[in-house]
Write a structure and sequence with these properties.
The complex is a heterodimer of chains A (367) and B (78).
Chain A lengths: L1 H37 L1 H19 L2 H22 L3 H4 L3 E6 L15 E5 L5 H16 L10 H17 L4 H17 L2 H15 L2 H17 L6 H18 L10 E3 L4 E7 L2 H6 L2 H12 L4 E8 L1 H6 L1 H21 L2 E12 L5 E11 L3
Chain B lengths: L6 E8 L3 H12 L19 E7 L2 E6 L2 H12 L1
The chains are: A alpha+beta (367), B alpha+beta (78).
Chain lengths: 367, 78
């Protein structure tokens, strides 16, 4: 519907301004085309569309192969870029190279080289899923995998792949993954089921990629090849339990808001109660000072706007937004902290209502 | 200017060319007997072949069972 209106607007614009309208439209199209040509992943998507048509018409293997590889790499690399911290969590983009097995020539795989057989173009969901798994398992969570218990590692991988595929924005691909890979794997082990349910809750509040994986990545960097110890394993499991309690906290319930161990020290400020926020921001400032005194290495300020407030009470909603902005201003002004990132996103709360949320990570600077 | 990024190169083989690839590897590496899945130890044929790699000089195969494929990927990182 929107697209139709857009086209009508463009035609009206050109009709109104005649030659200047056409020149402007032409400039816009050149700009869009250049954007696609410069961006390798976007141009892969367009190449894939071209070869898909060619394959449908000719049924030739060469067109099919070009469609498959351009489509898979374009979609996965763009999805990786759309994920919060996608480039850090999955540090490499994917590049696919066909093995051209000309008759009479032998192929000798090099040490560590992975060769994957791909299915026909009609089963592209399967191809995308197979290579998403390969990409995540070969490049993500490097430096920390050896510390993770197998079931926990599997749960993190499954949900990271799910997040990556989700960013493709194609339901058949997600359906294929959930039905043929995700669910069968989860169902095979009770331990995996247990960890997976916790990761799902954390992910539903938007804290999987924005908090848990950020802290695991930071933990992995600090480990720098130290042998695995029981303490490390327990610290990581404890971190997940800590975030899980925050993710499942209901209105009026208490949840621990600081996690202090030898190798992880983080604090969390939860901003969700409108009445509390509207009366004063001082309790939040005091909580921030407490985290600083405890020498937290990172402090997260996670706030959830009550979208329904807008319909019921626009004034309160506006006041909440203003107070939230003021809280961040005070933090940045009053304390020696570096704002690491600020992410706005949409998620569902414990009751299943959609909320707009904001996650800000501050790194305190100690002398 | 776009920042140069490192890429994870994955070799892929078309399902129609998998048979030639397997034959060439088997003849070159002089495999004795059947090729088996490194994870579940079942016989790997053109029909159920999913992936292969070389680790410590040895060529290892994986069948198309999703559980095996996931375990195979993890094994490669060990």
């Amino acid at each position: 519907m929107n697209t139709i209106i857009d086209y009508v607007d463009i035609i009206n614009f050109c009709y109104k301004y005649r030659i200047w309208g056409l020149i402007l439209l032409l400039c816009f199209l050149i700009y869009k085309l250049l954007n696609i040509l410069i961006d390798e992943d976007k141009s892969n998507i367009w190449r894939a569309k071209f070869y898909k048509v060619l394959y449908k018409l000719s049924k030739k293997s060469e067109a099919e192969k070009k469609y498959i590889s351009n489509d898979v790499s374009g979609r996965l690399n763009l999805a990786r870029r759309r994920m919060p911290f996608g480039k850090d969590l999955i540090p490499k983009s994917i590049k696919l190279e066909w093995i051209e097995n000309a008759q009479g020539e032998s192929y000798v795989p090099k040490e560590g080289e992975l060769v994957v057989k791909l299915d026909p173009a009609e089963a592209q969901e399967k191809n995308i899923t197979s290579l998403a798994q390969a990409l995540v398992q070969r490049t993500a969570l490097i430096g920390i995998r050896y510390v993770l218990e197998k079931a926990l590692e599997d749960a993190i991988d499954l949900n990271l792949i799910k997040s990556l595929l989700n960013k493709i924005g194609n339901r058949p691909i997600m359906d294929w993954y959930m039905r043929h890979e995700y669910m069968p794997q989860v169902d095979q082990s009770e331990d995996l089921k247990k960890w997976n349910s916790k990761i799902i809750e954390i992910d539903e509040r938007g804290l999987f990629t924005r908090l848990l994986l950020v802290e695991l990545e930071s933990y992995g960097k600090n480990l720098s090849g130290r042998p695995k110890t029981i303490e490390m394993e327990s610290e990581i499991k404890g971190l997940i339990e800590f975030i899980f309690k925050i993710a499942t906290k209901r209105y009026g319930e208490d949840a621990p808001l600081d996690y202090r161990r030898r190798n992880i020290k983080i604090g969390v400020l939860l901003v969700g109660e409108t009445s509390k926020m509207l009366s004063s921001i001082e309790p939040y400032i005091k909580a921030f000072i407490m985290h600083l005194n405890q020498e937290a290495k990172a402090i997260y300020v996670v706030s959830f706007s009550k979208e329904f407030l807008k319909e019921k009470d626009e004034e309160s909603s506006k006041a909440f937004e203003e107070m939230r902005a003021y809280l961040h201003k005070r933090i940045e002004h009053d304390f020696k902290v570096q704002k690491d990132f600020e992410l706005t996103y949409s998620c569902s709360d414990v009751a299943g209502r959609r909320r707009k949320a904001k996650c800000v990570r501050y790194i305190p600077i100690f002398k | 200017m776009k920042k140069h990024e490192t890429k994870e190169i994955i070799k892929i083989v078309h399902y129609k060319e998998a048979e030639d690839l397997l034959k060439s590897i088997v003849s070159l590496e002089k495999f004795e007997g059947e090729i088996i899945c490194h994870i579940c130890k079942t016989k790997v044929t053109v029909k159920n072949f999913k992936a292969l790699t070389r680790k410590s000089g040895k060529i290892l195969f994986c069948c198309d069972n999703p559980k095996c494929y996931v375990s195979f990927m993890k094994f490669l990182k060990e």
